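Contributing new complexes? Match this layout with flavin mononucleotide.
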Amino acid sequence: MNKNFWKDLAAKGPIVALAPMDGYTDGPYRLTVRKTAPSTVVFSEFYSADGLVRSKHLAKEVLPHDGIERPLVFQIFGKDPEMFREAAKLIEASGATGVDINMGCPAKKVVKSGHGSSLMINRDTAFRIVEEMAKAVKIPVSVKTRLGWADDSLLVEFCQGLQNAGADLITVHGRTYQQAFWGKADFTGIYELKRHLSIPVLCNGDITDYDDGISKLGNLDGFMIGRASFGNPWCFLPGKYRPTLGEILETMDSHGALLVEKKGRKGALEARKHLVEYLHGFPGVKNYRTRLVSVENIEDIRTILDDIRKDWPELLDKVPDGSAIPRKFEGIENCPTD
Ligand SMILES: Cc1cc2nc3c(=O)[nH]c(=O)nc-3n(C[C@H](O)[C@H](O)[C@H](O)COP(=O)(O)O)c2cc1C
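Output block (do not edit by hand):
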């Protein structure tokens, strides 16, 4: 893998990426997206740089991955340049395509510790982190950030500093730290940013599917989709692709099986929140969703999927109303990590 990875990819067409999402974009989620939409670049949930370096257990648990997950970028957070450097080396050794730095998380706990969004105001530390990592590894180093703290007036200057320090790609979530997840994502400042950088720039925020991303692309090199991919790995495909009920059930089966295979019982419990997201818009769906939130193992999951097949044979080759139709995400009460 080389430092030109992002530039080379951008030269082939818009970069389409799965956004990093804590508690979601683990190996099984990333594999499900890559199997459904093989051109997607997938980002991991964020991991503590210190944690990866200090606890060999964490690195052993989260870094090994399947070849078909690549291009795969691991995202890390922290504030200590040396820790970032060492964590980047571990990520490189895992065979991953790239390493991404979280400079956008607005969660109180994270910001209070000097991580995430607070790096937008502790710029010297932010630049040193990029510099240390860029010197230490051959894989590309990227940054995911926000428009700014309260507004986007410093975005260009900040990102030029990141580029000068050695960043190979920047993704901007079109909201400020203060907005957290409220209001609408605004890409105006990101289009302006691109005019001042030579590295690729991705936009992110409220994109519902591939076609929506293309319509908002402007002069940018690509986009990331996060929440709209819950239960909808088809959102990364062009043409507003809508799966049949049969395809949805097959994908639920393999997503659930991957979770159980990789994480055992914990995986089955995690499958609950993922699998309910897949089912929308056919009769009796509420009942199946209620059953899905109490599954304990793969057998429970398969029994429910088989019941749906038995109950609705005539719908298996039909597209359910509401399947893969982008759902609306209102402001999030308890702000997730970013
Ligand atoms: C549950 C959840 C967890 C998230 N975790 C991360 C994370 O670990 N790292 C990060 O950079 N952003 C994280 N984000 C922010 C997303 O990557 C993305 O920037 C945000 O959701 C806006 O994009 P969307 O409208 O396409 O979802 C998270 C968002 C959600 C909803």
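Reviewers usually confirm one structural detail per submission. For this one: The first strand starts at residue 15 and ends at 18.
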